[in-house]
Amino acid sequence: MAPMKHEGASDRKFRNAVRLAHRHVSNGLPPGLFVTDPSRTNDILETVHALPDGIGVLFRHFGNPDQLTLAPDLGLLCRRQGRPLLVSADPQLCAQIRASGVHWPARMTESKPVNLRTDQLNTMSVHAIRDVRRAQTLHMDAVLISPVFASDSPSAGAPLGLPRLTSYARRAGMNVYALGGVTANNAERVARIAGFASVSGLEKVYGPRT
Questions:
Q1: CB atoms < 10 A from the CB of 117, how many?
Q2: The pLDDT value given to residue 124
Q3: Is the pTM of this model over 0.85?
Q4: Given the DSSP bridges, would you call strands 101-104 and 85-88 parallel, antiparallel or unpaired?
Q5: End-to-end Cα separation, the chain, in angstroms
Q6: Alpha-carbon distances, residue 189 vs 10, 148, 159, 178, 193 (angstroms)
Q7: Predicted confidence (pLDDT) at residue 5 exceeds the cutoff of 80
Q8: Which domains does the chain have, with CATH numbers?
């Protein structure tokens, strides 16, 4: 099926966002991240296959057996594409599928020591400036700040907005991604400040057509 005109425009916007965000992200991390969700990502492998260069993958399985079954194929696909792959909250699975690193939800860093492997990437979710400080103490490679815009996620709080994202990015002293409500319509604005991360926004453009 030929892409519709609006889909072509959305693709161009995301590709430009990759170009803009490239100046803000370093140390082997991609300018953009596709964040998976078992309830909102229809076909992970098909979507990842269609993603532009410069967009990595943050795989979240939440213990879903179907998602875990996909993990080895996802690891292989990302390696073939040269696409960085982060595994959320599961260092063991990260090692098993030879992913690029681990993403640490903020809650996992609050109550027990976190042992980071220095030979892999480590990122952390943050929702307040105190989380940013903890990420600094732990020497994370990057933080994902959310939600920046209003989000479809049932767990999302009030959106921070671009001014607070700018403030956080200046104070973080590390790579920063904006997550939450990031779509083709606002990714370029985000990418002028930080890297971008998206669940439904990227899925809508690059996911399977129904």
A1: 12
A2: 97
A3: yes
A4: parallel
A5: 11
A6: 14, 12, 15, 11, 7
A7: no
A8: 5-206 (3.20.20.70)
